[in-house]
């Protein structure tokens, strides 16, 4: 949807009857979408959608389930794109019926699912519908109250000597990543971007509203408490007991507050495009100017939010990366891209960017040379940014409750990758 079209839709929704969740763009494009779905064999889906439009909530749920099955019929990259739009459409129809019944929370949940799992065609209208339903939900719930006192996630300094006992062998004993205050763009380009050298940048996030807001549980609960988000449960994604769940942000916040870092049921909101989904939080951050170095473009903004003890195992990413530490502290270990073979990547295609080496429990018989490999590491403090060059291997552990943002961007010559 173009900007002008989105503005027009916003105007129509803003002026609509409070008992109706208007969807002018969907209404105008429904036939074209259904025709494309029918061409992919979705005749039963089209039938259920027609019933849903007429007000049958069971048909709306059935259409959503049909699209869901198509999304999970094989690897995500092999899903026919129109079925992603079909899923968004079904979520929108279901939300409209919940909204008409005054079930604003259920409407928001359906719309969130459309954003998380659906295509891009209806994204603007989904966001506008969430805005309207959220206003209704806030107006009738305590989530709209602003008089609550702060509940801080992190309120005291850590003992580095105690923390070090939980870190991988040799941590903080070799080469530390250099830290530079208010690094200029010219210095970043010449000293780090072009040479592919990691650096911790200080004093470049002080103007972010997130710096003063995201350490307050009540602020996050007011802004996003009733939204549905995907979380990871378990030690990390390489472990057999690892799983994913969809829960409300309020439920997630409660899990963080009551977390026992020794539990295998640690819950982590990891590598999720939270700011595309919850735009109020995106207003609290600023894309660093460093991310436009090289003339490329932003590829992804991801949130990493969880309790102490969450771990992202040793892996590498394809793009330039700035990891901005908004709340709490993290330990980060980095290995040069030139050491890829020595770090034993998994042979499976889906995990080929992840190492078989578990730094928390190194098998010295299977990987006898790991402790001889050079690495850099650091404790990433609140308010600091870490530049991780493409293909550099990194392991990350939260030392406290931690809320981080990663900015991925590409080189100009890789825009088509």
Automatic annotation (TrEMBL):
<keyword id="KW-0539">Nucleus</keyword>
<dbReference type="GO" id="GO:0051213">
    <property type="term" value="F:dioxygenase activity"/>
</dbReference>
<keyword id="KW-0479">Metal-binding</keyword>
<keyword id="KW-0408">Iron</keyword>
<dbReference type="InterPro" id="IPR041667">
    <property type="entry name" value="Cupin_8"/>
</dbReference>
<dbReference type="Pfam" id="PF13621">
    <property type="entry name" value="Cupin_8"/>
</dbReference>
<comment type="similarity">
    <text>Belongs to the JARID1 histone demethylase family.</text>
</comment>
<protein>
    <recommendedName>
        <fullName>JmjC domain-containing protein</fullName>
    </recommendedName>
</protein>
<dbReference type="InterPro" id="IPR003347">
    <property type="entry name" value="JmjC_dom"/>
</dbReference>
<keyword id="KW-0560">Oxidoreductase</keyword>
<dbReference type="Pfam" id="PF24472">
    <property type="entry name" value="ARM_KDM8_N"/>
</dbReference>
<dbReference type="GO" id="GO:0005634">
    <property type="term" value="C:nucleus"/>
</dbReference>
<dbReference type="InterPro" id="IPR056520">
    <property type="entry name" value="ARM_KDM8_N"/>
</dbReference>
<keyword id="KW-0223">Dioxygenase</keyword>
<feature type="domain" description="JmjC">
    <location>
        <begin position="276"/>
        <end position="417"/>
    </location>
</feature>
<dbReference type="GO" id="GO:0046872">
    <property type="term" value="F:metal ion binding"/>
</dbReference>
């Amino acid at each position: 949807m173009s900007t002008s079209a989105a503005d027009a839709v916003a105007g129509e929704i803003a002026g609509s009857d409070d008992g109706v969740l208007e969807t002018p763009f969907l209404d105008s494009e429904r036939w074209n979408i259904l025709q494309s779905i029918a061409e992919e064999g979705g005749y039963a889906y089209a039938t259920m959608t027609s019933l849903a439009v007429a007000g049958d909530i069971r048909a709306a749920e059935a259409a959503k389930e049909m699209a869901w099955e198509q999304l999970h019929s094989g690897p995500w990259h092999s899903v026919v794109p129109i079925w992603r739009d079909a899923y968004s459409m079904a979520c929108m129809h279901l939300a409209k019926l919940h909204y008409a019944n005054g079930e604003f929370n259920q409407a928001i949940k359906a719309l969130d699912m459309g954003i998380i799992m659906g295509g891009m065609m209806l994204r603007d209208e989904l966001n506008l519908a969430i805005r309207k339903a959220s206003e209704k939900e806030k107006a009738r719930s305590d989530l709209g109250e602003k008089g609550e006192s702060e509940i801080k996630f992190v309120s005291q300094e850590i003992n580095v000597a105690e923390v070090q006992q939980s870190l991988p062998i040799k941590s903080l004993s070799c080469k530390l990543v250099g830290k530079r205050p208010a690094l200029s763009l010219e210095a970043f380009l010449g000293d780090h971007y072009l040479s592919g050298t990691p650096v911790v940048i200080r004093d470049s996030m002080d103007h972010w509203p997130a710096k003063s807001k995201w350490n307050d549980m009540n602020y996050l609960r007011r802004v996003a408490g009733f939204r549905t988000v995907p979380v990871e449960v378990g030690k990390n994604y390489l472990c057999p007991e690892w799983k994913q769940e969809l829960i409300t942000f309020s439920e997630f916040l409660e899990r963080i507050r009551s977390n026992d870092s020794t539990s295998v049921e640690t819950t982590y909101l990891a590598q999720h495009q939270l700011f595309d989904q919850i735009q109020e939080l995106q207003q609290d951050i600023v894309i660093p100017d460093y991310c436009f170095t090289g003339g490329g473009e932003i590829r992804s903004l991801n949130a990493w939010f969880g309790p102490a003890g969450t771990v992202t195992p040793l892996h590498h990413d394809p793009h330039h990366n700035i990891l901005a530490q908004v709340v709490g502290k993290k330990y980060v270990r980095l290995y040069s891209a030139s050491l890829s073979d020595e770090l034993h990547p998994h042979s499976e295609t889906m995990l080929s960017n992840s190492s078989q080496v578990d730094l928390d429990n190194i098998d010295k018989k299977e990987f006898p040379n790991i402790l001889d490999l050079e690495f850099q590491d650091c404790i990433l403090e609140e308010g600091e940014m870490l530049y991780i060059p493409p293909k550099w291997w990194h392991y990350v552990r939260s030392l406290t409750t931690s809320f981080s943002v990663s900015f991925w961007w590409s080189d100009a010559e890789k825009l088509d990758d």
